[in-house]
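RESIDUES AND SHAPES:
===
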Amino acid sequence: MNGHAILIDNARILTLEGPPGPRSGPWHGELGVVEEGWVFARNGTIEAVGRGRAPQMEMQEGESFLAVDASGLVLMPTWTDCHTHACWTGNANRIQEWSELRSGRSYLEILEDGGGIMSTVRSVRDASMTELSDAFLHRLTAMISLGTGTIEVKSGYGLNLEAELKMMRSLHRTATEVSSKFFPMRMQGTFLGAHAIDREHPNYVEYCIQKMLPKILEEFPCVPVDAYCEEGAWSPDDTERLLRTAKDQGCPIRVHADQFNDLGMTARAVALGARSVDHLEASLPETLDVLANSSTVGVMLPICGLHIDDRFADGRGIVDRGGSVAVATNCNPGSAPSPSMPLAVALAVRKNGLTPNEAIVAGTWNAACVLGIQSDEATAMIAPGQPADFQLLDGEQEGCVSWELASAGPRLVVIGGKVAHQRAVAMQHIESPFDDNSEDASGGEA
């Protein structure tokens, strides 16, 4: 087979075309809608996007051709889940802790007593890399079925060099194997050795900055670096020192801040040029002013609020101040046990105050900006020359994404021009003739 082509015809297309960089102001809700149109991709790249019904496409010799009738459906980019902790093992302790949360204990109390993040750390340290990779691949499969085409995954459940390297290697191996065996899944690993303080390790902060970070960068140069700044975790001073060190080594930097307490880390992160500040549930109005007047994106994690304590970041306040927001699942065993970007987007409308269109931009283009992939690999845009990563929604209008709750997910997910997930969609699979002079091609329903 010389190549693979796919035609999506008669769709309402959300191209997400617009200015470069994180979208804000009137562009925050602009979807670049083509009311009725078609998209043609070949060998993993979009070749053409048009209005009206698609013209007759010329097939190449030996080419596999897939034609999809998208009548009454919406075609949009796949989701970019820009904040997850999806690589972990061992759920039993976190399920018990969730019961304790329901009984009145706080998340920080459980963390202080050696539970929370540290519960999962112990499980990950005991797991083999194969066990870790298998558990991660299971979650990744679920994410893809819900329309996610690009994912960021953090380490941080190791908290020592051996286990952190195991996590980073597991992410790399899984991404490589999925891409080689199935389709070119896009995955970004982030070093989060500053996820908590290991109380059993003396001088853990110095160990992370002076020992772990350099060794991680030897094997994974310029990897993004993140930190969790909160009471009971990393202090603002220690967080800033880590992020400055990482930035000096050429690493993009991000930070978890203002989840339970506004400790002033958001303003420091903005001053450092962080790509994002994530959580923001406890951010003060003056903190939102600083964030909105910067190029740093505020990442909303509303599944966390749904699962833990009904507190949600003021996304409406950030957008109205002129800032940019993204939305992500925060998929993890403690505070957001869900792989669903559609759920995160629906909650961003209900709880973070975004409009349905703003939430779509937040879960696609702005999320891609957080990962720094919007320029070279604009997976969050449907346009010629861009990767063929798109999904067919199970509805006639894009508002169905935020209107529905716990839906079955999209009808079709295409990553790198290949079908990654499908259900209840009309498609015809055609093999081109080996003889260029042949008049007929075989076809069939798939």
